[in-house]
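# nightly structure sweep
# worker-07 picked up a monomer target from the shared queue
# config: single-sequence mode, recycle default, output format = structure tokens
# input follows
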Amino acid sequence: MERLRAAPDGEVVTEDVDGLRVERDAEGVFRIFSELQDGTPMTGATFEPTPTRASGYPEDLPFHPDMTMHTMRMGSGHQTAFFIGGTLAMMGELVEECLSAGWKRDGEADGQVGFKGAEKLVRGDVERMVVGMQIRRGDTFVLLIDRPRS
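# output follows
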């Protein structure tokens, strides 16, 4: 991992780390490629705060320039995104961006994910759980979980 971190900006570097293929692209975005035991593909990426969306930032996820975003996609229709930084009010901003992109509220998700104030959104055949919380350091942590509707 040190070689990935130490590479000059603009250089694409790939390294195998514990069976995962890890890559840092020319924009400094870290990407992880692997597969689950059943062969289902799994990809992940980390996007540091930037004033505008980096190329390759998932179009189907909200964007906040002040938050680091980690995403993990597993198979078709399952993805998890973690937004870290800022204030808890940013959860509302991320939800509003989802609503502007065509998502609809489907009631509060309390009890479904174990956190008060969680929201459940739906769009087409996908449901999205949005959970926000303060972590001990005072940073905000917002979790989005997409999965096929049941």
